[in-house]
Design a protein that fits this description.
single chain, 289 residues, mainly alpha, 16 helices
Length: 289
């Protein structure tokens, strides 16, 4: 009897309506399971590498769930509204790897830049947007790979600039964050993907300190203006976003624990290689269409 139930859909319906209804719900349940696991994985990446997670989430939504590029990016921006990086930030804060003042500058830059990026991206064709997404990932990978060694970076951080230089440094950090915010709004990433290597390369932050500082900008809803631009155009899947948020929060705590046990240089190299491969894949995908 049970063999017949699995072999023929007609027999399923006649023999066991309850079983048939359960089996018909399997695809939806599998999708929910994939989304939950994806949220957990993205959260680990947030805590481990100090990124917003969109760099992993957007292509996953496009390739695994077959989302349109705009819909994937708008949904990615949705999960950045709650303070999903709080758990990971707590781990970095406990280890003294957060520059709070620089993080506030980053938050303001993200907010303004994200609005500009969202306004640019929404009218674009999806294929063109996908290519731009890949280009940003390749650019971020190159920046991250070329970052100086953490030892020298730490030394430069310990030598605090004078007051006149600190103003210039604050303006520079704000502009870097605004540029990262434009990237976030255009391609639906958290902004940390671009900001972390910029803080390291241009301002002498160590890898861990750059990651911890970038997480400060994930606590307030700095992506709100960009998100509203996507939502107004109908490019947000609310159900998927709500399913992703718990996993991202829990994964962020786990990723923060892992970050303390891993070599910063190896983290940087693995992250850069991942970004480069994903970026090349996105560019070729856009060119083929």
């Amino acid at each position: 009897m049970y063999f017949a139930i699995w072999v023929s859909q007609d027999k399923i319906l006649r023999a066991s309506p309850l079983t048939a209804s359960i089996l018909s719900a399997v695809p939806a349940l599998m999708t929910i399971f994939i989304v939950l696991c994806l949220g957990l994985f993205v959260g680990v990446m947030v805590g481990l590498l100090g990124i917003g997670g969109g760099v992993v989430l957007v292509p996953a939504l496009v390739y695994l769930l077959h989302y349109d590029q705009h819909l994937a990016q708008g949904t990615s921006l949705f999960i950045l509204l709650p303070p999903i990086g709080l758990g990971a930030l707590r781990e970095y804060w406990k280890n003294g790897q957060v520059d709070l003042r620089a993080g506030i500058y980053c938050a303001v830059g993200f907010l303004l830049g994200g609005y500009i990026g969202g306004r640019i991206a929404v009218p674009m064709p999806s294929d063109q947007l996908r290519g731009i997404f890949g280009g940003f990932m390749i650019f971020s990978a190159i920046l991250l790979w070329r970052k100086p060694h953490d030892k020298s970076s730490s030394t430069s951080e310990e030598k605090a600039p004078a007051l006149s230089l600190s103003v210039a440094r604050a303006v520079g950090i704000f502009l870097a964050a605004a540029f990262s915010g434009v990237a976030a709004g255009m391609v639906g990433i958290g902004g940390g993907t671009v900001l972390v290597p910029l803080l390291s390369l241009l301002f002498g932050f160590s890898q861990h300190r750059a990651q911890g500082t970038s997480l400060v900008a994930l606590i307030p809803p700095t992506g709100l203006l960009a998100f509203l631009t996507y939502a107004k155009a109908g490019y947000v899947n609310w159900q998927t976003g709500l399913l992703l948020i718990p996993g991202v929060f829990i994964g962020g705590i786990l990723g923060g624990h892992l970050a303390r046990r891993l070599n910063p240089r190896r983290m940087r190299q693995v992250f850069a290689a991942l970004l480069f491969l994903l970026g090349v894949s996105q560019v070729f995908s856009a060119l083929r269409r």
